[in-house]
Write a structure and sequence with these properties.
Length: about 180
């Protein structure tokens, strides 16, 4: 193997190694919000807002990147009188109205998927605001669970970038070197 091939192979190996080292790692962050006591909704258009914060669970704003999330809200029917046979709530998430949900409350958790504005809020502050508004009936709010998927260390560090570019330049110089000697 001549000098040109050895140098090119070494340059290619170093470039691949740097790409592997600086690649983002898949990550998962969770946050549970539980009020001090269950919140009882029984007044027309009564609202309750709260905030999920994943920065206290390892999410580093500006370094990590959220790509999707799911939200599970535990709302329960109070199993009261027959006259309130239907309980309906409006759940307001960041973004446009189509990201929100109008749900009928029974004895199962409400599962909501992510919104673009919610992803933007998580990436910019690490927080997701949620507001529950009673439309009719009476019910309880017990807890909310946020599960965020994304990438840790999604930014390439400056020294790694410089080393990657330098290795590529050396590789091109190594390919041109034998041509320059003649």
């Amino acid at each position: 193997m001549n000098y040109k091939n050895r140098f090119s192979v070494l340059s290619l190996c170093l470039t691949c190694l740097l790409l592997i080292i600086t690649a983002p790692v898949h990550a998962n962050w969770t946050d549970t919000y539980t009020p001090d006591s269950p919140v009882y909704f029984n007044t027309c258009f009564e609202s309750y807002g709260y905030l999920h914060d994943i920065t206290d669970n390892g999410f580093d704003v500006g370094v990590d990147r959220a790509t999707s999330y799911s939200l599970s809200i535990n709302l329960r029917d109070d199993a009261g009188y027959f006259a309130d046979w239907i309980e309906v709530a409006y759940i307001d998430l960041p973004g446009a109205w189509w990201n929100d949900a109008i749900v009928e409350i029974d004895y199962s958790n409400i599962e909501l998927d992510f919104s673009i504005a919610g992803i933007a809020a998580l990436n910019s502050s690490g927080q997701l605001s949620v507001t529950i508004t009673r439309l009719c009936g009476d019910f309880y709010f017990y807890e909310s669970f946020l599960d965020v998927q994304g990438e840790e260390n999604s930014t390439v560090p400056a020294p790694g970038t410089l080393l990657l570019i330098s290795t590529a330049i050396l590789g091109f110089v190594g390919l041109k070197w034998p041509l320059l000697r003649y």
